[in-house]
Automatic annotation (TrEMBL):
Keywords: Hydrolase. Pfam families: Beta-lactamase. Residues 79-393 form the Beta-lactamase-related domain. GO terms for molecular function: hydrolase activity. It comes from the Bacteria. This is Class A beta-lactamase-related serine hydrolase. InterPro entries: AmpC-like, Beta-lactam-related, Beta-lactam/transpept-like.
Length: 407
């Protein structure tokens, strides 16, 4: 890992125990905007030693890349990415960078181990929690079309909200990480409900179970009082949209965001042609990961599949404020909640330091990791996609992003 310069310290996430992101949508690291704690350094060192021991039977192989190594940008990407692929279990990555009015694409490794095929801008990846800014925009869109403020309580749109705390919970709090709803590990029956499998820990937890959880348990903390990274909150936001519009979450994404932005390959289900373009995901162990085809009642938290090309279009739309949709996006990037645990939060987004006037979101599923960063001040968009689920992937993407923001 690169040394911690002041901005990198402000950008890099604190890392969760390695057994948690292996199966849950919370990304390997959540971008927190304060100095990295000592335990991060200790944890990373310990992890590196463990991974080195595990890799003794995996001889390193040369990693292919289309990086031409002609420009300063090429060198910056190479410096950030090449060390990641020193680990033989890391398979592939796609990097897209928009700056100075042009987009540059870089592929490293393979879409599937042994295929010899570089990831391209049209390779499909599970993007995990990068779905959350899409969900936030859809909620704002629905609220505005019904002339409702973002601080509208959600209770009137639920089948049962008898538990204390849920009645006061607002749409804003669902989307700015202050809902008081629990993280995955604190959802009492997530792992014990019939149908649970670690290969996809959400697909069995449908809308009926989400609503039953709210009725039986309610919130963990008073809404609006503290930061909690709750996939349940964003899953619930997606379910309320489906309930009120009688339209699936995927259809809402396609009609309200993907179609206007011409995101041809962003959705939940895939056509036969798209199936052949999906990268093979890999677990932290280096073994192939099964696809997360459905996330049950958690689709709004992380069900989307997309390409680098589509995410770049989505990122570039964050730099403009001309159309109604772009103005809607601008509202999701507005400061909504501040906490000592996580820093500055928008709706679905983490906000960068004011100096860089931007937003960032990371994501992870069973076999994939992702990052998108947009800086209005730098007119910069960075998209980094991996077909590995690993803390090291997001650390690498954050290191590259920090280097680009300094230039």
């Amino acid at each position: 890992m690169a040394s911690f310069n002041p901005f990198f310290q402000a950008l890099i996430h604190f890392c969760l125990p390695l057994d948690r992101p292996r199966t849950y949508l919370r990304p390997p690291c959540l971008l927190l905007f304060f100095f990295v704690m000592k335990r991060l350094l200790v944890g990373v060192l310990a992890s590196c030693l463990l991974l080195a021991a595990c890799d003794r039977d995996l001889p390193p192989t040369p990693v292919i890349s289309n990086n031409p190594m002609r420009s300063t940008l090429d060198s910056t990407v190479e410096t950030a990415m090449r060390p990641y692929f020193a680990n033989a279990r890391h398979v592939g990555s796609l990097i897209g960078i928009y700056r100075k009015g042009a987009v540059s694409w870089y592929g490293y490794g393979e879409t599937k181990r042994g295929s010899g095929q570089l990831p391209t801008m049209n390779t499909l990846f599970e993007i995990g929690s990068v779905t959350k800014p899409f969900t936030a925009a859809l909620v704002l869109d629905w609220l505005q079309r019904h002339q409702l403020p973002v601080d509208t309580p959600i209770a009137r749109y639920l089948p049962d909200y008898s538990r204390r705390g849920v009645a006061s919970l607002t749409f804003r709090q669902l989307l700015d990480y202050s809902s008081g709803l629990p993280e995955d590990d604190a959802i009492a029956d997530l792992k014990t409900a019939p149908g649970y499998t670690s290969a996809n820990p959400y697909q069995h937890y449908d809308s009926t179970r989400v609503y039953a959880y709210l009725k039986n348990y309610g919130v963990k903390y008073p809404p609006g009082t503290r930061y909690t990274y709750s996939n349940l909150a964003f899953g619930l936001a997606g379910l309320i949209l489906e309930r009120m519009t009688h339209t699936s979450f995927e259809t809402l994404v396609r009609e309200r965001i993907a179609a206007p932005l011409e995101l041809a390959n962003t959705g939940v289900t895939l056509t036969a042609g798209q199936q052949s373009q999906v990268a093979q995901g890999y677990l932290e162990t280096g073994e192939p990961a099964p696809r997360w085809v459905s996330l049950g009642g958690f689709n709004g938290a992380g069900a989307l599949v997309s390409t680098g090309s589509d995410l770049m279009r989505f990122g570039q739309a964050q730099l403009r404020s001309e159309t109604a949709l772009e103005k809607l996006f601008a509202q999701t990037r507005t400061l909504s909640f501040v906490s000592p645990e996580a820093g500055r939060e928008g709706l679905g987004w983490d906000l960068t330091s004011p100096e860089f006037d931007g937003v960032v979101k990371t994501g992870g599923t069973g076999g994939f990791s992702s990052l998108i960063m947009v800086s209005q001040a730098r007119q910069l968009v960075v998209v980094v996609l991996f077909n590995n689920h690993e803390t090291a992937a997001i650390e690498t993407a954050a290191s590259l992003t920090a280097a680009l923001l300094k230039q």
